[in-house]
């Protein structure tokens, strides 16, 4: 794909994102007390001998209170959309939706290994997916996505539960959240149909001593590595 094709594709994607972002709702459509199950979503990529790109999406549903695994599903396929920063959903969403279709248990909330509102047009994968999942979503990123050159963040206090908001022109894009004492923070952003404060509370209740990222996305990440290995060897 040449530069002109990339540019045209980007413009098409931006049009879609701009049409959807007017429908983003960062208010709570569900109370924390009503949440019984949470799903973690992640993807892993690889290339075959012909340099064709593939990915597998894994979805792990857990019990919110007990943290036990209820169900695991995955779906793999070829990736035809080239990587372009800011347009991850167009690569990943087809596989995400296919994996979710296989679930026998409908989660009350989805947590994505990626961003949501923390995006130039507030349309990260966690936000974009919510319009199809029709379920509250949260984005949890392990690395910082700088949506503008001047948009830096302040490290929160070293105490677990401390945070600092990522703001631009008075608008909060996301939150730098310290989930464990003295451990590097995660980058939390609303996906859709949930508030940032509620998303923060839920995230903190899904942290275990094994990792600084929430249990659902950690388990989904583990599954992607396993399934990718199986698929590559198969």
List its salient traits.
archaeoglobus fulgidus dsm 4304 fold, 8-stranded mixed beta sheet, alpha+beta, single chain
Would you write up a description of this structure?
- By secondary structure, the chain is α+β, with helices and mostly antiparallel strands.
- The chain has one domain: 2-Layer Sandwich (archaeoglobus fulgidus dsm 4304 fold), CATH 3.30.2170.10.
- The protein is 30% helix and 26% strand.
- It is built from five helices and eight strands.
- The protein has helices at 3-21, 88-101, 125-133, 196-205, 215-233; strands at 37-47, 53-63, 69-78, 109-113, 137-141, 163-168, 171-177, 186-192.
- Strands 3-2-1-4-5-8-7-6 form an eight-stranded mixed β-sheet, with helices on both faces.
- Helix 2 runs parallel beside helix 3 (125-133).
- The protein is globular.
**Beta-strand content:** 25-35%
**Mean pLDDT across all residues, rounded?**
95
- The portion of residues assigned to helices is 25-40%
For the biggest sheet, the summary is:
8 strands, mixed
- Overall 3D geometry? globular
What is the count of β-strands?
8
The class by helix and strand makeup works out as: alpha+beta
Under the CATH scheme, the architecture is 2-Layer Sandwich
The number of helical segments is: 5
Q: Kindly report the name of the CATH homologous superfamily.
A: archaeoglobus fulgidus dsm 4304 superfamily
CATH topology: archaeoglobus fulgidus dsm 4304 fold
């Amino acid at each position: 794909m040449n530069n002109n094709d990339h540019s045209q594709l980007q413009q098409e994607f931006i049009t879609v994102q701009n049409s959807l972002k007017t429908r983003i709702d960062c208010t709570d459509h569900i109370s924390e007390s009503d949440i019984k199950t949470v799903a973690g979503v992640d993807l892993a990529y690889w290339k075959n001998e012909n340099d064709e790109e593939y990915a597998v999406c894994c979805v792990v549903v857990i019990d919110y209170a007990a943290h036990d695994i209820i169900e695991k599903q995955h779906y793999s396929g070829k990736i035809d959309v080239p990587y372009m920063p800011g347009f991850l959903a167009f690569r990943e969403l087809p596989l995400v939706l296919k994996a979710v279709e296989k679930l026998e248990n409908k989660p009350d909330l989805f947590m994505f290994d990626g961003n949501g509102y923390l995006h130039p047009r507030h349309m990260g994968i966690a936000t974009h997916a919510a319009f199809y999942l029709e379920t509250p979503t949260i984005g949890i990123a392990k690395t910082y996505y700088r949506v503008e050159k001047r948009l830096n963040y302040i490290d929160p206090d070293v105490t677990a539960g401390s945070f600092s908001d990522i703001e631009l022109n008075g608008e909060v894009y996301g939150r730098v959240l310290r989930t464990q004492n003295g451990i590097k923070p995660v980058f939390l952003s609303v996906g859709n149909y949930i508030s940032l404060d509620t998303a923060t509370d839920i995230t903190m209740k899904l942290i275990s001593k094994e990792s600084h990222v929430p249990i659902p996305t950690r388990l989904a990440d583990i599954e992607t590595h396993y399934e990718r290995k199986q698929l590559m060897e198969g």
